[in-house]
Known about the structure:
By secondary structure, this protein is mainly α. It folds into 2 domains: 3-77, Arc Repressor Mutant, subunit A, CATH 1.10.10.10; 82-221, Four Helix Bundle (Hemerythrin (Met), subunit A) (Up-down Bundle), CATH 1.20.120.530. 71% of the residues lie in helices and 4% in strands. Helix 5 packs antiparallel against helix 10, helix 6 runs antiparallel to helix 9 and helix 7 packs parallel to helix 9 (182-197). The longest helix is centred in the C-terminal third of the chain and has 24 residues, at 155-178. The chain is globular. The protein starts with a helix and ends in a 6-residue tail after the last helix.
Amino acid sequence: MSVNAINSGNGLNNLAQDAYRQIKKSIVDNEFKPGDFLSENALAQALGMSRTPIREAIKVLASEGLLEIHKGVGALIKHITLKEIHDIFEVRTALECIAVDSALDRITSQELDILEKSWVDVRGEVLSGKSVGWDILSELDSRLHEFLLTKCDNDFIIDIISSIRTKINRFQKISASSLGNEMDTINQHLEIIRLMRNHDAEGLKNELKRHILLAEELIFKNPNIKI
C-alpha cells in the first residue's frame, strides 16, 4: 500500500495515516532506536486505535526503508549503515550546491532576517549560559536547509530531496546530537546566512560542503551513536 492509498479518505485510512505520521516521527526523532522491535499491540494501545491501521502504517514505513518486517517476528527499526549515511550526505551536498546558483536571486532580505533572528536568539541563550538543546538546533538546521532548496528554480531537485527527506531528517537528528559544541553549530549557520545575504555563491557552496561534511564526520566519530 502506498502513502497515497493511506490518504484516500475513509475512517480506517485516516487512522492509518495518523498512525503512520506518529510512528514515523518517533523513528526520525530517534525515539525508536535501530533494532528496536515494534509491537502492534503496544502501538495500538499507545495510539488508542486497533491493530489494523497500525499494521497498514507499518507496511508503508517498511516500503520507505525505515522498518524491516520479519515473518513470525514482526517489524524492527532498520539499522543505519555508514555507507547509507555517506551516500545520503553526498547526494545532499551535491543538490544543495546545485541549488545555490538559482536560489540566491530568489531569496529576499526579509526572509533572511527571519532566519537570522532565530539563530541570533539561540546564540543569545547560549551566551547567557543556557543550553538550547539539540532538538531545537536540529529543527532550525532543517528549516534553513529546506529554505535554500525550496528557493531554487529546479523542480527536479525539489522532487529528489522530497523522496529522501525522511532519511535526511533522520540523519540530521543524529548529526545534531553528535555535535559537541552548540556555539560552533550556531556560528556555522549564521555564516551560511551571511553568505546568502552577500550573494556569495562560491563561498556559500564551500561553506555548505564544509558544514555537511563536518556533520557526517561527527556521526562517524561519536562513540555514543549506535548505528
